[in-house]
Design a protein that fits this description.
The protein contains one helix and four strands. It is mainly beta and 84 residues long. The structure holds zinc ion. The site of zinc ion has 8 residues, from loops.
Length: 84
């Protein structure tokens, strides 16, 4: 019998962090122009939702400002350290 206190095992946190990839979620909104029928994507902005009408942005193709609707929102995981 020994009087030594039992120490909890120390987890190897550094090892786990080193291996885990630091990915960042990047959201995009796909916008369709009702005027020229073009669709394009841009970075997601707070307040965006599918079927939202954008009245304060202009179409990349025809510069209309009253025909844009968000048709899709998607996200991808990117490595911020990697230059794309
Ligand atoms: Zn357009």
């Amino acid at each position: 019998m020994s009087d030594e206190p039992m120490l909890p095992p120390i987890p190897a946190i550094g090892d786990v962090l080193d291996r885990k990839k630091n990915l960042v979620e990047k959201k995009h909104s796909v916008i369709k122009c009702g005027d020229c029928k073009a669709d394009f994507s841009r970075e997601f902005k707070p307040g965006d939702f599918v079927f939202k009408k954008l009245t304060d942005e202009e179409c990349e193709k025809c510069q209309q400002t009253n025909s844009l609707t968000i048709i899709e929102i998607y996200s991808e995981w990117v490595d911020p350290k990697k230059k794309s």
